[in-house]
């Protein structure tokens, strides 16, 4: 396993976007656990919301004097093929689970657990993110028998494949605590104790911070041939079948029947633990190639994403399944209304008819109609944008999530709160 590099981050950076009493309470919570050492483990340092979350939360915990490490698993392509199949199946559609797949999973997770034994640090609590590192439990129960283990599940488990869920439950029933993003995700997962913590965005990162006019202008120039003088709709998602870029293309084509010169930007990256990403990107690019107003942009820098979310007229999140979909809150934070599917965590972020619109996950035509409605009404877009900013400020900024996470840590270590 290896430790990713981390940015500098202090709680002081949040004073302008978070209520003073929340920041004071965070410091009080941290005082109760400031003599502990916490380890987060996940499967990739790049791409996807988990890595993005840890890149912010870990340095903030250290700033609060909670000794916190983050380690990323070292794994083979075959392992990531297995865990991607697990991810898809746990969200409702995957190949049969074979003995060979189970053996690959167990071999790699045990090897990573052995590497953890060789590290000098002694931890008081471990947080394992998603199914990839769960197999480490077989070894950790022997080497760290008194260390509480928390499982943080970031995926949508509302309709999992029974065989995969049973396999994962062989591990989840042995953790001390599980954190889910929605109550509906718990379902039949075998876990002893649970909490619900909504994910959040970090408002001070390069992707979400305020930008001066010069930076915006520079990034707009770099995004040429996109024109910001014409209507622009954007979706920002990993290239993943569940994100339904093809449905977004269909919605765009529907809206463009009534909106002259409409453009679509499909922006996304490939997570380090997702072997399907490149193949899907190529399929999307091929489908879009014939339309000069559709721009497929892989691995755009965070500042470019920030500008696109600010400068787009409407953002779309046309997911078929969605663990949470924080790209919705990213756009809403920048006062851009969002048309999204009513799946996963998206309905928690979009207040239908107030800061955006919700449509069925299979309703590309409805999504296109809602995009058209927003593009044809400047006043509505502006009002939705103002509503959006305040909704995210109240519900989906990082200090709130950190506060709730520290509460779980304190509970598991039996500390006062």
Automatic annotation (TrEMBL):
Gene3D superfamilies for the chain: Glycogen Phosphorylase B (3.40.50.2000)
GO biological process: glucose metabolic process
Sequence intervals crossing the membrane: none
Keywords: Carbohydrate metabolism, Glucose metabolism, Glycosyltransferase, Transferase
Domain Trehalose synthase N-terminal: 40-186
Glycosyl transferase family domain residues: 229-390
InterPro entries for this protein: Glyco_trans_1, Trehalose_Metab_GTase, TreT_GT1
A molecular-function term among this protein's GO annotations: glycosyltransferase activity
Highest taxon above the source species: Archaea
Subunit structure: Homodimer.
Family from the record: Belongs to the glycosyltransferase group 1 family. Glycosyltransferase 4 subfamily.
Protein name as catalogued: Glycosyl transferase family 1
Species assigned in the record: Natronolimnobius baerhuensis
